[in-house]
Amino acid sequence: MIDCLPPLRDVIAAHDLQPKKSLGQNFLLDLNLTAKIARQAGDLSGCDVLEIGPGPGGLTRGLLAEGARRVLAVEKDARCLPALEEVAAAYPDRLQVINADALDLDVLAHLTPPVRVVANLPYNVGTELLVRWLTPKEWPPYWDSLTLMFQKEVAQRIVAQPGGKAYGRLAILSQWRCDARIVMQLPPEAFTPPPKVHSAVVHLQRLEQPRFEADAAALSRVVAAAFNQRRKMLRSSLKGISKDIEAHLVAAGIKPTERAEQVPIEGFCALAREVAK
Ligand code: SAM
What we know:
2 domains, seven-stranded mixed beta sheet
């Protein structure tokens, strides 16, 4: 037992929290597992934790039991609020719940650094949130680390190396500014209801400075175009970026006949600098 609150199955029954597919609701009900996920984020005692999508509160309880200074939990589904209020009452002054869409909310006003982000993300908005966390104009960002659940294929794309099919936009944006690794793997049965896919937790530790200089918007644009047509040669897939793309590629040290998959992060950063000149 990690706290004196009722088991999550009882919480879900008491508040009639039938999982909704449209909100990506695959809940974790094993509190030992949620505490283990919370531990992947390191020592939380001096940190504010941002959690997106607390649902009935399994991971939230893990984070609080593991000693997070404060948790800010952003949940879109108002049906979950009464269950989360019970968690807040069990951990006085340590849990703030906001009923909002995480894609619309400015969380910064509610957080005090150091901040770590920990979430079992809804799969339909997970990638969008990750890309937003990784691509602010200024670096370092407001958060120190991201510890996030994804479907396994997405997790593999985040940690992928050049040369393989998984390597693309997510690998480049993640590893450009962070150390990224898979820290846990979970089978479908770990969730209620079980999703069709396997899942994995990725831990991204921010670097104080990006590995290579580049403007985030320019890099995002170049990488999105390059991998949008990943089987084409770069001189062709990147035509829309600049009419002088061949010259830019050469100046960045990249062969115009190369395919996106072969180019390391350093090459894309050099290209983003050339294009932005
Ligand atoms: N954290 C809980 C757990 O681990 O059992 C629930 C995880 S469930 C995969 C995703 C949660 O995100 C759901 O509670 C869902 O209602 C919520 N959610 C979905 N879209 C959201 C959004 N745009 N903003 C905030 N929360 C959202």
